[in-house]
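Per your request, structure below.
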């Protein structure tokens, strides 16, 4: 868990145990009272796992492969004209031959 998530868990648990008011939690976490209530309900239901972002560790589907950036920097280094938007297929084929990349 990140430091921010640990702080959220501590504040919400304090809120659940009536050691802190919801207004104090709003000030500490810089969130709205409605958001605090939602987090509080989630922590009561699922535990502290609810605070962790659900998309952690997942790579977006639309990311460009790192090897494409490697090839682009290679062409910039060699100073070969690189119009990768027009000739993308040709350059991707060259990536496969130069770096042995398999998609």
């Amino acid at each position: 868990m990140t430091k921010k998530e640990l702080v959220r868990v501590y504040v919400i648990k304090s809120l659940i145990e009536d050691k802190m008011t919801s207004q104090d939690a709003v000030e500490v976490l810089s969130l709205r009272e409605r958001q605090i209530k939602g987090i509080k309900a989630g922590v009561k239901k699922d535990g502290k796992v609810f605070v962790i972002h659900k998309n952690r560790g997942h790579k977006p589907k639309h990311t460009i492969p790192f090897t494409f950036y490697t090839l682009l920097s290679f062409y910039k280094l060699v100073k070969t004209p690189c119009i990768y938007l027009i000739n993308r297929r040709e350059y991707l084929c060259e990536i496969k031959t130069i770096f042995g990349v398999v998609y």
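Helices lie at 3-16, 22-29, 33-46, 66-78, 88-99.

Regards,
D.
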